[in-house]
């Protein structure tokens, strides 16, 4: 049983000041009981956030974790030699000095709307050798040679945030940038968007490409873990009260369950219990390991507070 918590520490100034207000008794007990087993370092400029690198077992280059190909591998359409990407329909907002993306989760895009929009966009993608496959309302699959080796920023880097610094600038991305410009013109007058605007919903005026690349012959297995993403949305909004509440809910729910599982001494054949906390600059994992009597006694008097740990992430 392995839990991964993205945005355990948030970069926004309001959330950065919030850990001192957190009362997380179950997390504190877990940190005193489990043993640190390794840290992964990152930067604010990495295309792939630390949580994604943890889940991929650090097996891929930055911006080239092939989430799309991994998802396609479970579908009948999968071609082992092909390259794929994830296409997220989105709403971009043009400000005086930057362009931001409204969180796609707030679009409330129906399956029917999404499918109509994808069919309208498909011919333009095909002209550039890219085939679109519909997965769900918020995610389409793109297949094509242009996606091989094309590093792209995770959707987590841009949803609810400025997109300017994350736009691909390499020569291989010229096709992508042109497609985004063409889609903005196509979608601006599309009947689906006319209907959405008429009912007060944001129009879909662009797309974001992420999770690009192809699968190697023997891809590394993904980390078998449960991702708890309740902190993500408030962290991206720098909404400290909501972030604190989400932390308290995690502590009272999943972390309390993890602690109960740890105390129940699972069978030797069961996967060891682990917890990974991910911030902007550091992801730290704690694992269940045999401990000496002396280390158990030290743990009893360990005064480390969760707030101190979170500030290191």
Overview of the structural elements:
The strands form 2 sheets. The chain has a 5-stranded mixed beta sheet. With 313 residues, it is an alpha+beta fold. The two termini are 22 Å apart. The protein has 2 domains: 2-59 and 222-310, no CATH class; 67-214, Alpha-Beta Plaits (2-Layer Sandwich), CATH 3.30.70. It has helices at 13-16, 25-33, 50-55, 67-72, 111-127, 174-188, 191-198, 232-237, 240-252, 254-263, 293-300, 306-310; strands spanning 2-5, 35-41, 83-94, 99-102, 131-136, 139-143, 206-214, 226-227, 274-278, 282-287. The model has no long low-confidence stretch (mean pLDDT 88). The radius of gyration is 22 Å and the shape is globular.
Task: Set out the fold topology.
Layout: E1 2-5, H1 13-16, H2 25-33, E2 35-41, H3 50-55, H4 67-72, E3 83-94, E4 99-102, H5 111-127, E5 131-136, E6 139-143, H6 174-188, H7 191-198, E7 206-214, E8 226-227, H8 232-237, H9 240-252, H10 254-263, E9 274-278, E10 282-287, H11 293-300, H12 306-310
Helix pairs in contact: 2-10, 5-6, 9-10
Features:
313 residues, Alpha-Beta Plaits, five-stranded mixed sheet, 10 strands, 34% helix
Compact description:
By secondary structure, the protein is of the alpha+beta class. It is built from 12 helices and 10 strands.
Number of strands: 10
CATH topology of the largest domain: Alpha-Beta Plaits
Number of domains: 2
How would a textbook summarize the main sheet? 5 strands, mixed
Strand content: 15-25%
Corresponding CATH architecture of the largest domain:
2-Layer Sandwich
Please work out how many helical segments DSSP would assign.
12
Structural class: alpha+beta
Question: Which strand order spans the largest sheet, edge to edge or round the barrel?
Answer: 2-10-9-1-8
**Mind telling me the C-alpha Rg?**
22 Å
